[in-house]
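Notebook entry, structure prediction.
Reason for the run: the old model in the group folder had no record of what sequence produced it. Starting over properly, with the input documented here first.
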Amino acid sequence: MHEMSITQSVVDTIVTRLGDARVSCVRLEIGRLSGVVPDSVRFCFDVLCAGTSLDGARLDIAEPMGRARCRDCDEEFTLDDFILLCPCGSADVAVLAGRELRITSVEVSHV
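New structure, fully documented this time:
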């Protein structure tokens, strides 16, 4: 499960940047075409945050749809899964969005 190592990297990055500051919320963006399972990240997050400054922090995950442009008909369309096929039938598409995997914000508690 690569979600464990990805989530560990998220936790490590936040702890490195913020030190002992108590974190109350972490917001991630995980695109639907990223290959990362958000529910697995949620599970790993709770386990990996134990004993760190993120212990008890809320995790919010946005899951943007995929977007692509057909190189044959030049139409832009949304993708819900990994089937990269334009409505015109062409498989010659460029993925524009949906592969994101990033920390979008971190809230620090002032208690």
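Summary: The two ends are 35 Å apart (CA to CA).
The old model has been moved to the deprecated folder.
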